[in-house]
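Please check our next protein.
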Amino acid sequence: MIQFDMVAQPIVDITNRRIVMQEWLCKPVDGSAETFFQTKSREELWYRESLCIRKALEKQSPYRKSLNLTMSSLPYFLETEWTWDGVIEIVEWPTRSLEECPGLIDELHNRGLEVWLDDLTSEEWPRWKQAGVDGFKIAFEEISAHPSLLQELLQTEKPIVVERIESLEMEKAVHRLGILYGQGFYYLDPKVK
């Protein structure tokens, strides 16, 4: 039997430190999330992801929900009728190419969901530039190492969430760059208000 829980991590407007959304993350009872999602088939991966989505949708929250889904599971997801107020974060993109999934982002939009890219890197940016996604999540280290990528992202005028913010100094640096949203351990500290 697969045992896990879903835990909310806040996505915060760094100008006022208000929560604007919660990303619901899988926390297995035994092992890491990485090993939980290492499967031998796309069907098994979708099964595990569907368990997580179902459990996250059962959680009560006053905030919009952001849930992760791999590219390879998108066709399975679209066979369901699931929808919610929030976002699907596309993760682990190399497992299936965007070209293999024509129209999938449009289908998610038709369902009322926003589609964001999670863990965006400078190497992946060229293939996602014109994909029609609604927002981007990128690690603090990535924007620090690739200022030209940050400038291109800002020019899209789409929401950007900087992940892995762990201190007030990091938050201030992100704000100086013109980014409004942050996520990371820093915002899990109850003293940060």
Remarks:
- The longest helix spans residues 42-58.
